[in-house]
Amino acid sequence: MKFFVDTADIKQIEELIPTGFVDGVTTNPSLIAKNGDDMAKTIKAICSIVSGPVSAEVTATDFDSMLEEGKYLASLAKNVAVKVPLTMHGLKVCKALREQDTKVNVTLCFSATQALLAAKAGASFISPFVGRLDDIGEKGMDLIEDIVVIYENYGFETEVLVASVRTSQHVIDAAVIGAHVATLPPKVIHELYEHPLTKKGLDAFLDDWKKTGQSILPKK
Ligand code: G3P
């Protein structure tokens, strides 16, 4: 399972890279706005430190402008995946960009039929938003289950990129279902390794070690 980091904050990405589990990055217009920096500059900076796909989202809504924006974003770095919304124009742009071998992430997916259309348009990634479905009383993970089965039934190569992840349980559920990727806000990434028994166990080991008066490294 691949982990992408869902942020436009370069410092947070830099902090996580040495862990070895940053397989890519996703951004969206809200995350770019939150970060406050110029979009092209931000995407270039992220692409210079992350070798996996970095999603950069178009903001136009008509086909021609969306395609122009998509081509521009793709020109910023080799590993840009152009993110387009799941609309008719977005799907057409997805197909056009895929024909030029540009990676495309189709975003704002809330139904299995939408995911099926994105796969038929050749999407590299489909981004179903599980947290936002949970917010309206639906089970976001049921959608992931359906999409994974549908894609397997027909051998689609589109990767299921679980988005709008809010909890570590979302990550576990996505992994059990077999989703290809989960994009995680840094806060959720930190929740993945934290456990009260790890902290308690480490404190006890360090207390006992201190009592021995030893040091592992030979004294200089
Ligand atoms: O990747 C999409 C994600 O950023 C949306 O998350 O928490 O705003 O629903 P959220």
The hetero molecules present are:
SN-glycerol-3-phosphate
Overall 3D form: globular
Rg, rounded, reads 20 Å
- Average pLDDT confidence is 97
Roughly how many Å apart are the termini? 44 Å
How is this structure best described in words?
The chain is an alpha/beta fold. 53% of the residues lie in helices and 17% in strands. The chain has helices spanning 10-16, 29-35, 39-49, 63-76, 88-99, 112-120, 130-135, 140-154, 168-177, 186-193, 196-212; strands at residues 2-6, 24-26, 54-57, 80-85, 103-109, 125-128, 159-162, 181-184. The protein has an eight-stranded parallel barrel, surrounded by six helices. α6 (112-120) runs parallel beside α8 and α8 runs parallel beside α9. The model has no long low-confidence stretch (mean pLDDT 97). The chain binds SN-glycerol-3-phosphate. Residues 6, 26, 28, 129, 131-132, 163-164, 183 line the site of SN-glycerol-3-phosphate.
Layout of helices and strands:
Layout: E1 2-6, H1 10-16, E2 24-26, H2 29-35, H3 39-49, E3 54-57, H4 63-76, E4 80-85, H5 88-99, E5 103-109, H6 112-120, E6 125-128, H7 130-135, H8 140-154, E7 159-162, H9 168-177, E8 181-184, H10 186-193, H11 196-212
Parallel strand pairs: 1-2, 1-8, 2-3, 3-4, 4-5, 5-6, 6-7, 7-8
Helix pairs in contact: 4-5, 6-8, 8-9
SN-glycerol-3-phosphate (G3P) binds near residues 132 and 164.
